[in-house]
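Changelog-adjacent note: as of this version, every example in the card shows the full chain rather than a window. The one below runs 171 residues end to end.
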Amino acid sequence: MRIIKNHIDIDGELTKLAGRADYLTGKDQSDVVVLNFSDMNNRTIDISNVKEKVVIIELSSDFLEQPQDITIKGLDSDTKDGQVVIINVQSSKDALNLATKTRLIYDDNTQLSPNESHAKPNHILWNFGNKVKTVNISSGYFMGSVLAPNAEVNVDVNVDGNLMAQTVNIR
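Full-length structure tokens:
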């Protein structure tokens, strides 16, 4: 048997990520985050006034399963030391079917569109926790990285970010 040095222990890393997902899920939403979903065609999450380096947002999966866009405003444009935005997606369902498009607007008013490369950093992590078993991303486009360490993530559209899951299917 050949021993491979410096290999990646995928199962071990997923176990660590599952612990991190639980830890993040337990965090309370940052105080001055403004979620405005009163107008279904202009749904926004505004983090402009958050001063902490890590921004926590609690968001029901119901909002991601609707086809209207969600705009996240006030993202830090600093590529090196910018704020990190953790969006803890709350759901009582085992399977989620994401249909929304996400739009990102930075603190310098730059707006990102889905693309193969970006001038602005990806500081968004969508944390689906450990209870969700399937995440289907099949409509619109999705901006930010996905953490779903115990789930199968099926992607039919552009996702601009990293995908960390038990299984990832790009279709």
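Structural remarks: The chain is about 10% helix and 40% strand.
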